[in-house]
């Protein structure tokens, strides 16, 4: 098989079945299944009684012939509880081996509750099992059929062994109690009929996992996506948040699997909304990463509203300067110039009527002459031409924003994995950006009209002066 439209439809139906009766758990269900498709593990962080174990049991029912293992750990737990009892017959033969049938090394899907309450001996054994899918049993290593482990905890560890184990869970998903808005639905769901597992036709088998893996290997990471990943990595490093290279590689694989499962041949920018649960350990820091992404996805830094506003302001300031400029000569470049004695005579005669006694008496000269500067067609054409270029670039960017919003709407309508709340927030930000850009375009148009209406030199005066003004200086727009 391949990851065709039919497979995508199967996944959509499977997810709908898994979510049935679970209130405000849509995103968690989808993330746990995506992690399983990618061969990764999920850690659910939250208080008891928030359906964490139910999520794991349902995930197990999504796979054909899957073996399920579940255990609640305490500080008194011993390895036998997870890995099986020691073999008496092997001990008689001086071998230290365990009977693993029915225990974690034999499981396809596993749920380990209060996972960080285990002692370091158990956690160290789990490190290899989760990462390598192998279990050290006696003198050899036993291959394990493990697809995915769901761990649950109330708190994030702060010791070295716990942190190493914490890093083995690619997805760290906070799970909180149902909100006030969902409380009535929660009570209604508690009175509903028992959940019906997925139909056999929807179940995933080894051939499905293999097909998704093969398709994901061919999925491309476009330069735009790689650039954003690199920017986020640098941002997190600046914030003092360490994300291991292994985690970045696994995150990129998860993005490829998400795209492949939907039948796409490349990772899209919207897929990066999956990143918070991969690169941040808790709800607060995941929200910060989400905000960072929302501010950058779908927009170009070179056309950020703040930068574009400064560009428009530069033209407005230049317009105000030229509108308020006074002139003793009507040189379009704004320089006082008397090019010939005749001009000096003409100017002196022009000023004669505005000369008076500075002290109110005769004989002293006082100039109170003032006239708005006038500009030639070359000057005005240079200014309006520069704004026309700016307006053309703004219009092009507005079209680009519209295309990004259309792409986002299409992704929102078809995605299997992305959180609709984040998608809605991103669309709102893009809409706000589009409105700001439209307002700045109107301001630029007003400035153009202002330049076009500047006082003009007569045709005869304009013929004498043809100096072009220096372009208005402003920040470059990428």
TrEMBL record:
Database matches in Pfam families: AAA_lid_8, bpMoxR
Annotated AAA+ ATPase domain residues: 38-179
InterPro entries: AAA+_ATPase, MoxR, P-loop_NTPase, RavA-like_AAA_lid, RavA_ATPases
Lineage top rank: taxon: Bacteria
Entry-linked PANTHER family: ATPASE RAVA
Protein name: ATPase associated with various cellular activities AAA_5
Originating organism: Methyloversatilis universalis (strain ATCC BAA-1314 / DSM 25237 / JCM 13912 / CCUG 52030 / FAM5)
């Amino acid at each position: 098989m391949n990851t065709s439209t039919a497979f995508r439809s199967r996944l959509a139906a499977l997810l709908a079945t898994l979510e049935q009766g679970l209130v405000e758990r849509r995103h968690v269900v989808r993330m746990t299944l995506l992690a399983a498709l990618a061969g990764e593990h999920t850690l659910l962080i939250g208080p008891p009684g928030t359906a964490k174990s139910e999520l794991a049991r349902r995930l197990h029912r999504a796979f054909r012939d899957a073996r399920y293992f579940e255990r609640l750990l305490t500080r008194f737990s011993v390895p036998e509880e997870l890995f099986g009892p020691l073999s008496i017959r092997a001990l008689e033969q001086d071998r230290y081996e365990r009977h693993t049938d029915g225990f974690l090394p034999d499981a396809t899907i596993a749920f380990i509750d209060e996972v960080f309450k285990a002692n370091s001996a158990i956690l160290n054994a789990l490190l290899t099992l989760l990462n390598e899918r192998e279990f050290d049993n006696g003198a050899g290593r036993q291959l394990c059929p493990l697809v995915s482990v769901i761990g649950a905890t109330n708190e994030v560890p702060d010791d070295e062994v716990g942190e190493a184990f914490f890093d083995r869970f690619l997805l760290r998903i906070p799970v909180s109690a149902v909100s006030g808005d969902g409380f009535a639905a929660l009570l209604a769901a508690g009175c509903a009929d028992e959940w019906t597992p997925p139909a056999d036709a929807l179940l995933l088998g080894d051939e499905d996992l293999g097909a998704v893996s093969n398709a994901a290997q061919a999925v491309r990471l476009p330069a735009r996506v790689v650039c954003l990943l690199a920017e986020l990595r640098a941002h997190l490093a600046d914030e003092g948040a360490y994300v291991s290279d292994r985690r970045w590689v696994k995150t990129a694989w998860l993005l490829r699997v998400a795209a492949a499962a939907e039948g796409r041949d490349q990772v899209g920018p919207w897929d990066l909304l999956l990143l918070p649960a991969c690169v941040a350990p808790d709800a607060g820091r995941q929200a910060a990463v989400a905000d960072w992404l929302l501010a950058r996805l779908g927009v170009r830094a070179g056309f950020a509203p703040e930068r574009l506003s400064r560009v428009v302001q530069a033209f407005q300031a230049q317009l105000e300067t030229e509108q308020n400029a006074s002139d003793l000569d009507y040189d379009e470049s704004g320089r006082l110039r008397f090019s010939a004695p005749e001009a000096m005579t003409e100017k002196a005669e022009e000023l004669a009527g505005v000369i008076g006694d500075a002290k109110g008496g005769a004989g002293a000269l006082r100039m109170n002459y003032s006239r708005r500067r006038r500009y030639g067609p070359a000057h005005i054409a240079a200014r309006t031409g520069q704004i026309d270029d700016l307006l053309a670039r703004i219009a092009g960017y507005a079209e680009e924003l519209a295309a990004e919003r259309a792409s986002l709407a299409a992704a929102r309508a078809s995605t299997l994995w992305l959180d609709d709340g984040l998608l809605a927030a991103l669309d709102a930000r893009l809409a706000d950006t589009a409105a700001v850009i439209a307002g700045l375009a109107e301001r630029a148009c007003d400035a153009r009209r202002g330049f076009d209406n500047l006082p003009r030199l007569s045709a005869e005066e304009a013929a004498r002066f043809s100096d072009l003004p220096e372009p208005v200086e402003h920040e470059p727009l990428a």
